[in-house]
C-alpha cells in the first residue's frame, strides 16, 4: 500500500551540508515515485552501454564504468541501511564510509557489466518496496551518521540525487 507523502525537498537541517548537491540533484516529485521512475530511466541508460565497455575509464585514475556502477550500488546499499535503521527508531550513531576504499576492495572490474546492472535493478526494486511502507511520520524520523543528523526523507532524496549525479557523469564523460 502506498501512503500519501510530501513532494517537497527536505530542509537543509535534515541532512549534512555536504549532501546538499545530491538533494538538489534529486528529480522533483514524491520521492518514492521518483526512485521508482529513476530505476527505469537508469536501466535504460545502463542498457545502452556496450557489454565490453565495463572496464573503460575516461581518464587515468578515474573509475571504470563497472566501478562507477558498483559505487552507485554500494552507496544505495549504505544509505538504505541508514534509512532503515532510522525508520525503525534506531538512534545509534552510524559511521561514514570511504567510497574509494569501498571501490578498491570490491573488484568490480572482475564482474560482468550485466551482473552489476541486474544488481541495481534488484536493489532499487527492493528499496522502493521498503520505502513504500514508510508513511510521513516514518519519513520524519531522525538519526545520526558520521556525527550529522539526517531524516529518513533526506536519505531517500540523497539516494535519488546521488544516482542522478553519477548518471550525468556517465553520460557526459564516458560516452
Model description:
By secondary structure, this protein is mostly helical. It has helices at residues 20-25, 31-47, 65-87, 99-104, 113-132, 136-139, 152-173; strands at 142-145, 148-151. It has one domain (12-173): Four Helix Bundle (Hemerythrin (Met), subunit A), CATH 1.20.120. Helices cover 56% and strands 5% of the residues. A hairpin with a 2-residue loop joins β1 (142-145) and β2. The longest helix is centred in the middle third of the chain and has 23 residues, at 65-87. The chain is globular. The mean pLDDT is 95.
Instruction: Examine the secondary-structure arrangement and name the CATH architecture.
Output: Up-down Bundle
Proportion of strand residues: under 5%
Main sheet record: 2 strands, antiparallel
> Strand tally, please?
2
Number of domains: 1
What would the CATH topology be? Four Helix Bundle (Hemerythrin (Met), subunit A)
Strand order of the largest sheet: 1-2
Distance between the termini: 40 Å
